[in-house]
Amino acid sequence: MSQSREELFEEVRQLRLRVAELETQLAAQSTPAVDRITDGFLVIDRDWKIVYLNHYLETVIDRPRIDLIGKNVWQEYPQLVDSDIYHNYHEAMLTGRPIHFEAFEQVFHRWWEIHVYPDATGLSIFIKNIDERKQIETEQQALLAELTALQARYAVADQVSHQVLYEWNVKADQILWGANTERILGYPGPVMPQTLDQWLVLVHPDDRPLTRRTIEQSLAECSCLRAEYRVRHDQGHYVWISDQCQLLLHPDGSVDRAVGAIVDITDRKQAEQTLREQEELFRQITETIQEVFFICAADYSQMFYISPSYESIWGRSCESLYQNPAAWLDSIHPQDRNRVVVALEQQAQADSFSQEYRIIRPDGSIRWIFSRLSFIRNQSGELYRIAGIAEDITQRRQTQNALNELAEFNQHLIDSIQEGVIVYGLDFRYLVWNRAMEQMSGLRASTVLGKRPLEVFPFLEETGIYQLLLRSLAGETITAPDIYFHIPETGKSGWTSAKFSPFRDAKGNIIGVIGIIHDITHRKQVEQVLEHRHAFERLLAQLSAEFINLPLNDIDAHLQQGLQTIATFAQADWGWIYLYTNHETVATKIYEWVAPNITSPLENLSSLSMTTFAWSIEKMRQLQPLFVADIAALPPEAEAERASARAIGATSFLAVPLTYQGNLIGSLGFHTFGRSMSWSPEDINLFMMVGTIFAGAILRKQNELTNQTVLQAIPDLMIRYDRKGVYLDMVNPGRIRLLKQKDECIGKSLREIFPPDLAEERLYYIEKAFETNTMQIYEYEIEVAGEILHEEARIIVSGTDDVLCMVRDIGDRKRAEQALQQQAERYKLITEITQNIHQSLELSQILDTTVTGIRQLLQTDRVIFYSFKDDCSGVVMAESVSPEWPSLLGQTLFDSCSTIQQCFALHKQTGHMIADIHCTEPAPPCGALLQNLQVKSNLVAPVWQGEFLRGVLMAQQCAESRQWQPSDIDLLKQLANQVAIAIYQSDLYQRLQSANQELQRLASLDGLTQVANRRHLDEYLAWQWQQLQRDGTPLSLILCDVDAFKLYNDHYGHQAGDDCLKQIAQAIAQTVKRPSDLVARYGGEEFAAVLPNTNLEGARHVALNIQTQIAQLHIPHACSPVSDYITLSMGIASVTPTTTTTPKMLIAKADQALYAAKSQGRNAYCINND
């Protein structure tokens, strides 16, 4: 992979050289045109030598250009050193970014507007004289100041008659007010403040401190007071006032009184704010016209303004456009003109217009233009002005064409990536749409590229993804939430996760956004299935809990509500329960639920002949579910079912048998109308369990109704007591087991027969029956012959002084209720364990949660998870064990995964149960191992991931053997499946973390030399600056430049040049090796060494060591003017960071020292002591 990346970088470098060559040729061809323009044009190479200057500059400096070409610009004009021009030229050369600025230079004493464009060879500089504009701006500022003064004077004069006069007795702190207080401030004279502190309470809190200080200063200096501040009006708002007063002095020289006037200046303050806003608007417009800016009539019949840049770009005079405003349309290339005109007509109803097109200049040359128009409308909404900006983008289009070849190569690489890759440009249009995205969305790249996100996918706005893209374009790396997508044009839909990062060029500038899109549809489908199943399980547990201890009178309502809940959950249109009666010949509908929108005739289906529907009834007798997804697919023997379904408009149905203790009593079913439904086997199994719950409730209802009837006539046991609890008679004991026989009880008290607590309880209810004259019913437990029995007693007054007590055995009901309760608790605990598993991506936490929950659920002595690695070695990774048994955590029990498969005969969808190690015949292969571990019963469920056995869940009973139930192994297998999913998710998360770390590492390294890149250098330098600024310690920087490296490349070839740079980088890195030091590639053949906590002497010592290391490399350089081997020139600078200095200053100092070292003959270092 390393070789492939170097080849890619080499190809990019070649393409960049080709672009530079094309730009050089273009500059040579355009030289005559440059000489004709009225602005200056200057080209400087990277050694600050003048390569070219046009005729305009030749006339300005009054020297022949031949005398200056090849000369160092700073040596020719040393007055410019340390000027804004000097620093901005150096910053553009160092950063590689264009710089635009205005400067007044001291050589010819003129104002210039300067545009600096760096490239691989040096700087291209466009210079425009702006003396006249600066003079106009100065005059405008003077006029504006005069206008402001005039406005202030006029405002004061206008308000003289609207002032409030006052007199303040300073010594007595007493204020007397004139007559206009209510008109200006809203307060009548009597309620005006009488003291200074009371007056300051009315002053705006933001103005109050300054107002107090101004008054105190005026008093201290005995000077007139002049102040402007805000005062709260009686109506609650604040008004601006001007407060001016004259101080009257006491004969002793102290201030005695102050006489003044207050004037409302609120209108003037608002006018000043409006004037500032207009000045800001004017400033923005002035800055905009650096490009071609124009304003014209809506029909292009009149040109109101055109900026001077029109002449340099169009090659025509501004006056010609004023005379013929439509001339700009005539200059558009014939192949583009119709497109621009049509676009103007189509977008005239909008507020803006933008287009790229070509123009033909008078000299026949062609330039590319990007125009943006704004349509200005009057109050009636009619278009009456057009304002626009036009930009020359010729150079950008030429560069873009040169890079098309690189883009095509990159596209092949991107298309080979299996994940979706998209790239947005700065204008937020799609630049890259790889093959994986085509497959995911069904949209070809040709239909997407060039468009904006919301044009293709409107749902990005409502899902919030578009806002995340904007944040990423601003510099953030964003991990987007999972979203669901549906593309109507292609029918594609699914789930994706995405990560968006700023897309930067080689210089670290943001040029767009890159997104990596993962198709997680399959994972989401699995999660949805699991969530659906968990919801069903929770619903099942809820139903089980609801039917426990449910009174007889509530059973019908709960069954009806339960049917509606299950039918709604199953997304059915009709749910029903049929009860089989008359020796299974008739099926009677006892409950049903119909969706509100269903109008099918269902009244005739209240009673069905089981003979007529023999095919479906036979399925029920076999205790099997019956699922028909399409009625038309029914077999010929199910004609009655097909006809009945078509008669009511049903399209699919599901029926499950209602069974209780293996006996069929009816069926539970669901129908859909007008649509097919698909229920998974897992759903159908859960519906079977619902059927069991419903069957139990129905039978319980029937049994209790029957029992009620029987108990009213012949109860299981009837006892007559007198009011004191003495046995009077006993009748028909039935199945009730008695503590004593009838002849032993008659005539004796309850306290003599029953245990004390039970005797007192029954006496209590006997007395309560007399008091309330109502039947008393209660349940209790009693021990008979060592067995705990559950009984219910009903006590009713039967005479003036005796009661009848009816007793029946409710053991079966209690056992059923207990079973249902246990079932509900198991489902509840399963749900909790599953939710806990999916709430964490940390594997250890997932496994600890699982084994703890299983041991709690199964009440075992030990539960372990035995994990296998890729090499099949294993270890006990998680364990939950009772304190009395030894821990196996971290131990290796099996030498490979195949061994454990053989020991427990494991394969997919199976588990393994051993009830008693000592009684299992034949002895299991793992018997000896389990005996050594003191295990008596063992339960195993495998955790598969594809074809690979990731591990096993193992429940162990150590104290005594245990007869495992099928539900135990089902539970363990179910949780094993959940663990497999959770492990898979955890693995994905770990791989993602590793990938992100690797990407971060690569992002901070230079691809060729494997030292830090420029971006990491800038970040590290800024970080160290903050640290050392706080500590007050020095920071040194060494800039290294390979001497005559271009000659080396030309002579030995670029491949040898790359190898040379690698050796130099490693040599410097071996020398600069403190943990806090940093070596980075600063430019093409330039390197930088950051030395924190190092002074100039220490930095000089490091530079000497670097020279020694480079010399020991003995890299031949036959073309070097200073040595037969590769040498370095170095610039050294050191500063102690402060709040007033910046890292750029340190870089500039080191760069000046490097320049000095190269000027002194290279193969040397210089120290900047300034």
UniProtKB/TrEMBL annotation:
PAC domain ranges (all copies): 225-277, 353-405, 479-532
PROSITE patterns reported for this sequence: GGDEF, PAC, PAS, PHYTOCHROME_2
UniProt domain PAS: residue ranges: 278-351, 406-476
UniProt cross-references to Gene3D superfamilies, sorted A to Z: 3.30.450.40, 3.30.70.270, PAS domain (3.30.450.20)
InterPro entries assigned to the protein according to its UniProt record, in alphabetical order: Biofilm_reg_signaling, GAF, GAF-like_dom_sf, GGDEF_dom, Nucleotide_cyclase, PAC, PAS, PAS-assoc_C
Coiled coil: none
Domain Phytochrome chromophore attachment site: 842-978
The protein's name in its UniProt record: PAS domain S-box protein
